[in-house]
Input
Amino acid sequence: MLLSFDAKQKLKLSVRRNKEYLSKYLLEEERVVGAMLDSKKLVPEGEGRYKYTVTSFKVFQLDINPVVSIAVENKNGILKMSALESELDGLGIIDDFNLILKANLEATDIGLEGEALLGVTVSQPPLLKLVPKKILESTGHSVLNGILLGIKSRVQKQLVKDFLSWCESNKI
Output
């Protein structure tokens, strides 16, 4: 049985100091991605590509460890991220795991605005065959929403701090 769940988050972040330089800052791809995600779990794999080990989590006594290859590009002043490949450790052999990531971040008159969609499609693991599909999908939705809220919180704290540090180092 195929399970499918997703979560969405929007971001509106006011930046008071030096906001006119936000577009230029967003061009610092590796720096920005490292500030948005946990840089200790992020491995650059060439221009515009990163491997990211999502924070491990426990669902119904199973340790889940997603690893995602992410493409990042800056088009017309908008930083866009999308998942290229994904794998899942912790549920045994699962061939049909698919993770969807579509996110963007843009400099605006108020500061930064963005949106992220995180989705998963996966077959029901044999260990969870007795758990009803609705419960698994509800749990999956909650887990994905928690991941996005964690990233949003990190962006709200770490990204602005890193932007101000970048401004200082560039004597802006």
